[in-house]
Design brief:
Pectate Lyase C-like, 5-stranded mixed sheet, about 30% strand, 18 strands, disordered N terminus, 2 domains, mainly beta, disordered C terminus, 3-stranded parallel sheet, single chain
Length: about 240
């Protein structure tokens, strides 16, 4: 549905199937009010503003040649700027990162309206920053026990390997996501997280050695609740 709406192949009435999309998708002039998306956030992260309080930065260049002296107009240059920024893309583009893209505080990367792929290279690093989602990167960082994160309405597709998400120590609500053809496992947990998977759909890869939906490094009182059928509150408890 998303690709049909963007490419103009769908001629019926506007359709929005989840609360986030219903908050913006059917506005004809939504592109003029992009930062309003921050007001649509459900779950534990509903107070996150990202780059809402800053200007819009338009990425016009897909190159990635120099992280130290990054070129204006590139995604690399956008994410290292001081202060809030709402980052958008001028057109469809594929970005292959030569080094990890290190995020800074108060940023939103908004690719709505364009076909943007950050793939076949390095990934995005979110560490020691605020006003973003951190899912925990250390088994020994005790303050993460207070972490509360909602992962909602995402498609995790082909080519992804693992950690969608990998959860440590905190409380996680993984709801209404679509997982297809991962290479190792879908959701990981360690160090006593509480993970509720509700209304998620899992389509495993054909590889018989990679059909693990949940990777669990067990502690004494760790558990995961799973609603893999994708319908409402139906759940199974993995013991």
């Amino acid at each position: 549905m998303r690709s049909m709406l963007r490419r103009g192949k769908y001629w019926g009435p506007c359709q929005a199937t989840n609360p986030v999309d219903r908050c913006w998708r059917c506005w004809k002039d939504w592109a003029n009010y992009r930062p309003k998306l921050a007001d649509c956030v459900p779950g534990f992260g509903h107070k996150i503003t990202g780059g809402q309080k800053g200007p819009i930065y338009i990425v016009t260049d897909s190159s990635d040649n120099d992280f130290i002296n990054s070129k204006p107009g590139t995604l690399c240059h956008a994410v290292i700027q001081n202060g809030p920024l709402w980052i958008i893309f001028a057109r469809d583009m594929h970005i292959k990162l030569s080094q990890e893209l290190i995020m800074t505080n108060d940023k939103t990367i908004d690719a709505r309206g364009a076909d943007v792929h950050i793939a076949y290279g390095a990934g995005i690093m979110i560490q020691h920053v605020k006003n973003v989602i951190l899912l925990g990167a250390s088994d020994s960082y005790a303050p993460d026990k207070m972490m509360q994160v909602t992962i909602a309405y995402n498609h995790f597709g082909r080519g992804l390997i693992q950690r969608m998400p990998r959860c440590r120590l905190g409380i996680f609500h993984v709801v209404n996501n679509d997982y297809t053809h991962w290479q190792m496992y879908a959701i990981g947990g360690c160090k006593n997280p509480t993970i509720t998977s509700q209304g998620d759909r899992f389509i495993a890869p054909d590889d018989s050695s990679a059909k693990e939906v949940t990777k669990r490094d067990y502690a004494a009182n760790e558990y995961m609740m799973n609603g893999s059928t994708g319908f409402g509150d139906q759940r199974e408890i993995y013991s």
